[in-house]
Amino acid sequence: MNPVIKVESDVVGSAVGFSGPVLDGLKGFHWIGDNSSKTAKDFSEVGVGVINGAPSYSAGYATFGPAGGLDLDMIDTASMTMAVAFRGESTWADKPVVVGARTVNVPMNLVYISNLDKLIYRIYDAANSLVGVTTSPAFSGNTNWNMLFASVDDVAGQIRLYIPAQSINLTASYTGPRKIIESKINAGKDGAAAFVGQIKQAHAAVWSRALSVGEMDEHYEYVQAKLSALASIDV
């Protein structure tokens, strides 16, 4: 599918004229990097991103972690999808958070990198018990950029961790309902002291429904083309 930016009246965000490939349920779309105003700008015009703390900015990406991250303007919903383009630092021993929602001591819906170079996606129930988890094989994410999708379908009782460039497509079943608290989805920063690693991110998006793999592929191809052209980032 060819990526397209339109300036027409029939697209999401009338002033900017943004049109991404998967608009149904889209609640936030960010190109991250360069400066705080660009990073916070929601190109879908559905919401407004908020910089959390003081991340550092580079051309085409930002470095998130304990110093700061990006709050996406969507409260966690029972079924939803998160997408980020990311690259790790020299070590993942401090378990950087990639994307998710969590407050201190209240786990909920979180993707983080373990100290074994694996991505872990976890969700919890109302009793704060782990009910769904997927763990990727180990891979080196410190040299190359990657695009990941983490989705939860609370009707079907399934979570998915999808990393196209690594051919990782993992699902796990759970018995719902899962825990929902009034917390916005955050890219790159967590409220718990155990997750303090740094991570580079170039893009983040959220939807209020579980995307199909086909829709994830469409979004991946769109972002891949744009980041390659605009920031020389290959996800």
From TrEMBL:
Quote the InterPro entries the UniProt record gives. ConA-like_dom_sf
- This protein's superkingdom? Bacteria
- Which protein are we looking at? Uncharacterized protein
Organism expressing this protein natively: Zhongshania guokunii
